[in-house]
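Below is how a single chain appears once it has passed through the pipeline. First comes the sequence as given, then the structure the pipeline wrote out for it. We keep one example in the README because the format questions we get most often are answered faster by looking than by reading.
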Amino acid sequence: MRPPSAGGGQRRARFCRGSDFQTIELERRPVALADLVDATVRIVRVAAQEKFQRLEVAVDPGLTASLDERLIRQALLNLLGNAVKFTPLHGLIRIDASRASDNVLAPGGGR
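Resulting structure:
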């Protein structure tokens, strides 16, 4: 991801769902990644606790990215939902995000 620019931006994106293409408006704006990740983790935390899984989050403070928050939140929910589903009992799910030059690195996964 590139660093946020001086303003939001709208772009169109085409997604394929089955055999149909859909065009949606992307609403890009600077978003605090720690807040976005924390809000998303809260949604899946109960499901993880039911499987005795640990959720660890390490997001650099002040880290922002210019993105469509709604789409990225949905992507994070999908990824975290799959992590909870496929991580074994008592497993660890870790989310890391840090700045590396002009990019945001987001390694991590379930064990």
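The chain has two helices and seven strands.

See the next section for the split statistics.
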